[in-house]
Design a protein that fits this description.
The complex is a heterodimer of chains A (72) and B (518).
Chain A: H1 3-27, H2 30-48
Chain B: H1 3-15, H2 47-71, H3 74-84, H4 86-92, H5 96-103, H6 108-135, H7 146-149, E1 151-154, E2 171-174, H8 177-186, H9 190-200, H10 209-219, E3 230-232, H11 238-251, E4 255-257, H12 263-268, H13 274-300, H14 308-321, H15 325-343, E5 354-359, H16 369-377, E6 379-384, H17 385-388, H18 399-411, H19 423-426, H20 429-435, E7 440-446, H21 450-453, H22 456-466, E8 469-475, H23 485-499
Parallel strand pairs in B: 1-2, 1-3, 3-4, 5-6, 5-7, 7-8
Helix pairs in contact in B: 2-6, 3-4, 3-6, 4-8, 6-14, 6-15, 9-10, 10-11, 13-15
The chains are: A mainly alpha (72), B alpha/beta (518).
């Protein structure tokens, strides 16, 4: 078999393995299980422990910006 | 194994198991794990539809989500945004499971048509949060970059069309649509953080939870700083006016209340363009005309290939956000599916027992209840109130006509027309019931909306007087803790057994525990 033929066969093999692998992830919902059990708890923990600005301490400067003239 | 069993197994493999219990049904409830509602394995819909779901929905959307992220703002901005903002990281990563919930049990054109609607919503969502992140001063060391200077923020109930005259120069990104509204549909847990946050500073628990959540995002300091100015409007209720007050405080920007689009010229120094406005309105009118064609098919035949949840969410998203390329791409694909269904007379929801119209505001955390209702009871939600709000084209033949129609359109925004827009609009239900040939009403009951609560008794009276079959779905818009999904299912089950005396199509869906699900 020529080099190109072998390359094509290899390419087909890789595509087939990739398709089967992805189909297994899809069918058994491995993406959902990973996101639900690992990714989301990790991110939630991160967000829960983030330092946040205390927005209540910001002054409410209602006159900070000039009054808009509706007729201009 | 008997020959008959082998034959049935082969048929089930090729075509998928039949829907109803009498035919040896597919028992969709058995596919899920308790509580989390994750799939033990995804549904086998037959060779053709399973492969369609795998390649054209699951894989296609994963690939195109990555592409959208890369094209619209880049991976770095996305990663920074996910790390900084809870509403994107906690919500949008499991988005394919939002597809699963909405498309469960669908086959053939109904599966394909509905999925394209979902795809358009995902792409538009990515567009918006990527623009927020690319312009966000918090993710760029406090710098106000060029994108920041060409982005305008606004309430999600300010129609995007208001900004058409500056198309291509200024990008409008609603404040709440992506950090709040869409999150509730995709992951119902995220929003609870924001509701609790605003109550923790002393707000009582009884105002509209939508307004609570929209304010709570600011209390938790979880809003990107992505625009020079913000445009607000009232959402037809006092609670939303209070939301604007809190937004004014926490966002600390020049804030304008509609109607007054000319502020854009003042703030951004870019002139109003009549030509751009007309061009965009014409494009939007094209979308409206196709929607009318869809309604014609939905109302007069059994060939409509869009399920209840895809119809509702796509339509409200498209009409409120305004014209955008992806809507046209999607409509083109859906037109092909629609025309095929009509020409080949394909009954897209063959197990329909009742044609349902859903009225008032839907529970955001359970917008896919109609998928469940069709699978379990054969209740096919043909149309809903949110789809019907913007039942108009906008004239472009003169400046006066255009402004008049734009004002009318804007006035008919979500909640301003049919939810709290007065009895005339609320009672348009009867006309639309006839137009869409529906024999049953799913009546939403937003427990914390004082406006609609006032009409509850009137509807009860009208249902009796008109002998209309109707069931109520109580809920608290985004807050899944007030009326759970299981409680909504129980109420519908009770109605279908005690009033309608019907048997479920799929008994495995009657009662299950999905309390922890997204």
């Amino acid at each position: 078999m020529c080099k190109f033929g072998k390359f094509l066969l290899k390419l087909l093999g890789v595509a087939l393995v990739l398709n089967v692998g992805l189909f297994l992830v899809f069918f058994f919902d491995l993406d959902g299980k990973l996101l639900f059990n690992v990714v989301e708890p990790f991110l939630k923990n991160h967000y829960d422990n983030m330092e946040r600005k205390d927005t209540l301490k910001a002054p409410y400067d209602i006159d900070k910006f000039p009054k808009y003239d509706y007729n201009s | 194994m008997a020959k008959k069993d082998i034959k049935k197994a082969l048929k089930d493999f090729w075509y998928g198991k039949p829907h109803s219990a009498e035919e040896g049904g597919r028992r969709l409830g058995d596919l899920h794990e308790e509580k989390t509602h994750l799939y033990k394995h995804r549904e086998w819909r037959g060779v053709k539809d399973t492969m369609y779901y795998f390649y054209m929905i699951w894989l296609y959307n994963y690939i195109f989500m990555v592409k959208d992220v890369m094209v619209m703002g880049g991976l770095v901005n996305f990663a920074k945004g996910v790390w900084r903002y809870r509403w994107v990281g906690q919500t949008y990563l499991p988005v394919l499971h939002w597809f699963d919930r909405g498309l469960e049990g669908m086959r053939g054109p109904a599966l394909a048509g509905s999925a394209w609607h979902y795809r358009a919503m995902v792409s538009t969502t990515i567009r918006q949060f990527q623009r927020m992140f690319a312009a966000d001063t918090r993710l760029h060391g406090g710098k106000q970059n060029d994108l920041y200077k060409h982005t305008i923020a606004h309430n999600e109930t300010v129609w995007g069309g208001v900004f058409y005259p500056w198309d291509g120069e200024i990008t409008n990104v609603p404040l709440e649509m992506i950090p709040y509204f869409v999150t509730c549909h995709v992951n119902s847990h995220t929003v609870l953080n924001y509701i609790d946050a605003v109550q923790s500073i002393g707000l009582p628990g009884d105002p509209c939870p939508m307004c609570q959540a929209e304010s709570g995002i600011f209390v938790l300091d979880d809003v990107p700083d992505y625009a020079k100015a913000v445009v607000t409007c009232n959402e037809a209720c006092d609670a939303s006016v209070s939301t604007s007050t809190l937004q004014d405080w926490f966002f600390d920007k020049p804030l304008f209340s509609l109607p007054m689009p000319m502020l854009v010229e003042d703030q951004y120094g870019i002139p109003f363009s009549w030509e751009k406005l007309v061009k965009k309105l014409e494009l939007q009118n094209q979308l409206q005309r196709f929607e009318w064609e869809k309604w014609e098919v939905a109302g007069k035949s059994d060939y409509y290939p869009i399920n209840g949840v895809a119809q509702a969410l796509y339509r409200i998203y498209q009409t409120q956000y305004g014209d955008w390329e992806i809507w046209h791409v999607t409509d083109k694909k859906v037109r092909k599916i629609l025309e095929k269904c009509v020409s080949k007379k394909i009954n897209t929801f063959p197990q329909t027992r009742h044609r349902v119209i859903a009225w008032s505001c839907a529970p955001l955390y359970y917008s896919n209840w109609c998928t469940w209702a069709y699978n379990c009871w054969g209740l096919n939600v043909i149309i809903n109130m949110d789809s019907l709000m913007f039942d108009m084209e906008i004239r472009t033949d003169s400046y006066e006509h255009t402004l008049e129609d734009m004002a009318q359109y804007h006035m008919w925004a979500p909640m301003r027309r049919m939810a709290v827009g007065g009895m005339k609009h609320m009672f348009e239900l009867w006309e639309y019931m006839e137009r869409f040939n529906c024999d049953m009403v799913a009546m939403y009951d937003q427990l914390q909306c004082k406006g609609v609560q006032g009409l509850h008794g009137l509807f009860e009276d009208e249902f009796r007087n008109r002998n209309v079959k109707a069931f109520w779905i109580p809920h608290a818009l985004p807050d899944s803790r007030t009326v759970s999904r299981a409680e909504i299912r129980r109420l519908i089950n009770d109605y279908m057994t005690t009033v309608m005396h019907e048997e479920p199509l799929d008994p495995s869906l009657l009662d299950f525990d999905d309390s922890m699900t997204w």
